[in-house]
Amino acid sequence: MYIKGKVKKDKQTKNMTKRLKPGDIAMICHKDLDEIAAASLVEKRIKCVINTDETISGRYPNRGPSILLEAGIPIFESIGTEVFDLVREGETIEIKDNKLFLDGNPIGVCQLLDDGKIEKLLSIGYENLEKELDLFIENTLEYAKREKGLVTGKVPIPDIKTKINGRHALIVVRGRDYKRDLQAIQAYINEVHPILIGVDGGGDALLESGYTPDIVVGDMDSVSDRCLKESKEIVVHAYTNGKAPGLERVKELGLEAVVFPSPGTSEDIALLLAYSNNADLIVAVGTHNNMIDFLEKGRSGMASTFLVRLKVGSKLVDAKGVNKLYRSHFKLKYIIGLGLAALIPIIVITMMFPPMKELMQLIKIRLKIMFGM
Known about the structure:
Keywords: ATP-binding, Kinase, Membrane, Nucleotide-binding, Transferase, Transmembrane, Transmembrane helix. The chain crosses the membrane at residues 334-353. It comes from Anaerosalibacter massiliensis. The chain is 45% helix and 19% strand. The protein contains 17 helices and 15 strands. The chain has helices at 13-16, 35-43, 64-70, 82-86, 115-146, 149-152, 178-184, 186-192, 201-208, 225-230, 245-252, 266-276, 291-297, 302-312, 322-325, 332-352, 354-370; strands at residues 2-10, 25-28, 48-51, 75-77, 92-96, 99-102, 105-109, 111-113, 168-173, 195-199, 215-218, 233-238, 258-261, 281-285, 316-318. An eight-stranded mixed β-sheet has the order 7-6-5-1-2-3-4-8. Strands 13-12-11-10-9-14-15 form a seven-stranded parallel β-sheet, sandwiched between helices. Helix 2 runs parallel beside helix 3.
């Protein structure tokens, strides 16, 4: 296999995707490539991925590599930091016979991950899933002991300007199938007009769908300046000690923000914010709701998401998979039926109109003459 293209590289895949252009080669350092990162790479229509870390370590069955292969994007592994450090962003490299070339000179070797290798590694991941589940349970119990205030209500909820009381709240996270799920519930959004809450990049997801976020919540590391400027209110997630790295960026844009110190993730505090402000119903799009989601997030704090869901569960409806549950299809017989139904009253009214009755009589006489009746 021979591939040539310009390199875009970053150890944070989500940062690099903002700079990728069609035809680029993405050089990443991403262990256990997750589904969301893979989907963002596919959207950019890149030529291939070079990963300087294990794309599938076998710790759990991550879906990212399969998504890339399904989209026809080859994955090469060149384990180690040497290649990553040798290549500068924007330089053109070549991949030929599992070797990497820069300016015609070999700089390293790489291994193509094909379907067979990925399936083998995924099977190892499935075998390890029970072990990871045990670790997750232990972490969740430990977290519950340490941060039980998050669930029992001892974490203070800041005052916000947006009035949520008695209304529905739609919380959007850039997670699995978020685009299709947003599209599937457009009728709900347009009819109910819920409070729209974007979690970091979820705010941009709302903008892309034609909606202005009422609130953007997060540490501000993956949301655009445009989204921050257009959103009606900003809530910055801070550490429990009050330090909020994202606040500086908001201030640089000349905007105001509410600071929410809390353990856990930005997704968690968005749920707590809606719940504590007496939302009548919380609808979640793209949020984490199963074991693989939690493991793909790759942080021990995901235990907080599990606990927060226990707290808000009575009001929470997950929109994940709505697009698979219901897909509308127009059938020709329905269209014909509607057309005939619409014609019946028109025909009746027409026949009752005197000039039309005379015209119909003339047509009837003309037909009799033509056919000798």
